[in-house]
What does this fold into?
Amino acid sequence: MAYDDRPRERLLRVLMYMVEHPQGLTRKELAARLQVSEKVIKTCINAIENVGFEVGYDIQYHTYRLVPNKRTEKLSRLLYFTPAEQEMIRQAIDQVYKFSHASETLKRKLSSIYDYQRLGTVGFRKPLLNRIAMLDKAIKDKKQVILQAYRSNNSETVADRLVEAFHLNVPEDIVQAYDLQRQGLRYFRLSRMERVLVQDTSWQYQSRHLIMPADPFRIVQKQQVMVHFRMQVSVYNDLIDLFPLTKNCIEPANEPGWYDFQGEVNASYLAIGNFLLGHGSKVEILFPEDLRDWLNAQARKLRF
It folds into this structure.
């Protein structure tokens, strides 16, 4: 009789789901994903603990999650791509897809995987886990939430934001939501809100909940424009630190010490505009002329 490998496969799948959901999952949710009983899931969790992983249990939400220890650090290293490995994968993607739309999509996914490593054990810290859990619950229950004391770079404000969150992306540190005050779709950084308050009010604008791709600066806007600019090394370092997805749009320039950015961004120049204004002397705008005009107009408004 052939050896039954299903228990081992189930165990690995439970471990995989717990890695993918650092905010935690209930036994019922895990059982539904694997199409087994909750008793089987409990056996899997016990086995995971027996081999050295620490599994935390949230009494309030009845969720199980991996707690960082030496085992999870080793697992993270196995899932980690070095910059050199990333570049090899990008080159392989370009060889197969010949710089097509598919290649750009795959490379963005690669950056998203790498960004998960940048999130690191922050994703397991209790305050962030609480925010993730509250958002996850609000999405499932279709309830409005208040993102309390949200720190916005675009508006330079710290304020409560009443939204309908509908798409949570923990690896990229973002939640997509419909902003009731601004009557539009917005991306919010999980790390920029102090806490999440779930409201009793149900969703009112579900028909407007569209999961839209963001530009490399994590701005959601239908109208986008192609932008091309050069920057010095210090600007390049700041750019990929603040906006890691921009790395897919950057190549070394012909001149040593300079880098080229070329990619589509939101037509309102949100995020990218403020970034370029802050690095004006080390940036050269090549295209479009409209961006140069916009920056000059904003610069004239500056007061020191």
Remarks:
- Confidence is low (pLDDT under 50) at residues 1-5, 115-124.
